[in-house]
Amino acid sequence: MTTDDSHHDDASPDEDRRQSGGAWREPDARSGGNPVLPDGGTEAEGADEATLDPWGSSTIADYRKLFEQFGIEEFDEVLSEVPNPHYLMRRGVIFGHRDYRPVAEAMRNDDPFAALSGFMPTGDPHIGHKLVFDEIIWHQQQGGDAYALIADLEAHSARGLSWDEIDEHATNYLLSLLALGFDPDEGTLYRQSDNRAVQDLAFELGAEANFSELQAIYDFDGETDVSHMQSVVTQMADILYPQLDEPKPTVIPVGPDQDPHMRLARDLAARMRFFGVTEAFASFEADSVERTLLRQAYDAREEYAEDADRPRCGEAADWLRDHQPAPADARQSVVAKLDEAGKEPLRPRIRFLDRNATDVAFEALIEAIDGEKRVYDEHIDTFDLDHAEAEELARQVELDNGGYGFQPPSSIYHRFMTGLTGGKMSSSIPASHISLLDDPEDGYDKVKSATTGGRSTAEEQREKGGKADECPVYELYAYLLSGDDDEFAKEVYDECVGGERLCGGCKEQAAELMEQFLEDHQEKRAEWEDKLDELDIDLDSDRAPTSAD
Ligand code: TRP
Ligand code: SF4
């Protein structure tokens, strides 16, 4: 039994989630500019809170909440830094990110970077998965090392799928990924259960996380399978796997339901590091709020120090006591520390903290620091390095001494597609989604019978225009059918809201395009089918045919 068996159990990452229509964005509205339409899914009723649950039914009523509540950043703010952004980026389908800048920078400078995502083989791949396939492929085409993995351990432990079912679905995911343009000679495909290096790394990462933490993040409890927990550390290892050879910026394209995994992975990546690098102002330890106050006190030294070249901690304490409006307890604690340090000079420095270093590595770091330095039990202060140089040095010493030197992984988040029947897109409601394996004619029919954002009569539509941003059919145009052609997507949008486009014709056009897409896609899948055994991935698990439950 898993903890999540109360949830529908055949959902894949980007199903069963609500979202508003795909808002068209002006191509020039890049740097935080105004999209033509608001991008919040405010019409989803009943949910005023966003929950992100990788195995449950997350509800996303309002994407803006993800920024405020979880600290996901708006993609628009980095868009202008991305060379030749993908249409999903330009159209706001990719709406959020964590720390994407290092990836964009690597792309611009032709430096190494990687993209990785994983797929739980729980059903047929559908047009929601296509978004992630496209994102991986695009990063590969931009010069990144691309990885796609089959999350078979997770499917078995968290969803209870049998190995036979997993094998069949895994093959279908891979065929679609390849048909859409993934280059297997340049990229890496693997399944979790077959990747020894991932399993070893998962074990190491597991030593940095405990049960209370998984409980807090994922709501695990005493009933949770141990294998389910193992699938979490396995995913952590997947996410860091591209950095095993060398640390590099790595982006994980996913739906926002996977964000809890990203937060944990970023934490674990930092916890594995040998050394932390921070700013400091005196021999004592300070947290980041205290450091801000110390920086202010240092910058104001002319005002209070007898010798401004040599301000004393005690003098800074007096000044802070009198002058600084700040959170009272932070101020109190820093003033106490400064008082205690008394005559010690207040002097900026870069501090290396010993987190996970071996004695040998700690000694090696001391050796490697040029210029003035001061060595303590658990840290080293250095006075002639700037922050970036210190980071670089810490990583180099770590790598030279057998550490990983991980960079925190980045992520990008795409919107969930609305179901064709309105509401959720769910693999348990065939009419709500289009499988990449659907017969092209069925694809045509599903589009033809989709819900629209149209008005009740043609007259009303001509007068008021359609509601394109509440229309699942418009979403199909924006997310898929227009491909790279922004002008076409915009034309559909403008004609719709301007009342020139009526739903009958609009759906007919979309249905034909969908039929065509499925035909082409399946033709390419068939070509790859013959070449599957050339791939470096085993599609037959030789495991006992049990299910996880
Ligand atoms: N948990 C993901 C899902 O629900 C699958 C997955 C496994 C994954 N490992 C990953 C996603 C690494 C991104 C990166 O589908
Ligand atoms: Fe949707 Fe097209 Fe109708 Fe507009 S015209 S509401 S885009 S189906």
**Helical residue percent band:** 40-55%
Shape: globular
Distance between the termini: 5 Å
Report the radius of gyration as a whole number of Å: 27 Å
Characterization of this structure:
- The protein has 549 residues and is an alpha/beta fold.
- The protein has helices at 63-70, 76-79, 87-90, 101-109, 127-141, 152-159, 163-179, 196-206, 211-218, 226-240, 259-271, 288-299, 301-304, 313-323, 328-341, 359-368, 387-400, 440-448, 458-464, 472-481, 486-497, 503-529; strands at residues 73-74, 94-98, 114-119, 145-150, 188-191, 250-254, 275-280, 349-354, 373-375, 379-382, 410-414.
- The chain has 3 domains: 61-273, HUPs (Rossmann fold); 276-403, no CATH class; 440-528, Tyrosyl-Transfer RNA Synthetase (Orthogonal Bundle).
- It is built from 22 helices and 11 strands.
- It has a 7-stranded mixed β-sheet with strand order 1-2-11-6-3-4-5, with helices on both faces.
- α5 links the parallel β3 (114-119) and β4 (145-150).
- The longest helix has 27 residues, at 503-529.
- The protein is globular.
- Tryptophan binds next to β3, α10 and β6.
- It catalyses: tRNA(Trp) + L-tryptophan + ATP = L-tryptophyl-tRNA(Trp) + AMP + diphosphate + H(+).
- InterPro entries: aa-tRNA-synth_Ic, Rossmann-like_a/b/a_fold, Trp-tRNA-ligase, Tryptophan-tRNA-ligase_arc.
